[in-house]
Write a structure and sequence with these properties.
mainly beta; globular
């Protein structure tokens, strides 16, 4: 059965901090395809993130809505370093072709 409900897209730093990664969190999937952006190029623009989502087969549910940003403390970091996470709601571009 295809995904028919909106899903959350995320943009995070890679584990080694060398790239931003845009991906869609898919239920019951252990690994999610992602689109990388080098951190040396700065924070990916809204347009670049929208193109990354399109390459993954998704579109923002509300194109006028910007991404929500939050800080997430890195577990066990004694210095209190945080990870920045951006999220937005997306829907499959072609719901009839998406896997469950």
């Amino acid at each position: 059965m295809p995904h028919t409900r909106p899903l959350r897209a995320h943009m995070i730093h890679s584990w080694d901090g060398t790239e931003w990664q845009v991906f869609v969190a898919l239920p019951d999937e252990p690994r999610w395809p992602h689109i990388p952006f080098a951190t040396t190029d700065g924070v990916p623009t809204l347009h670049a993130r929208t193109e990354a989502l399109a390459a993954l087969g998704y579109t923002p549910l509300d194109p006028a809505h910007t991404w929500d940003w939050m800080e997430t403390p890195l577990e066990g970091d004694p210095e209190g370093v945080v990870a920045l996470v951006a999220t937005t709601t997306v829907t499959p571009t072609h719901p009839d072709t998406q896997d469950t």
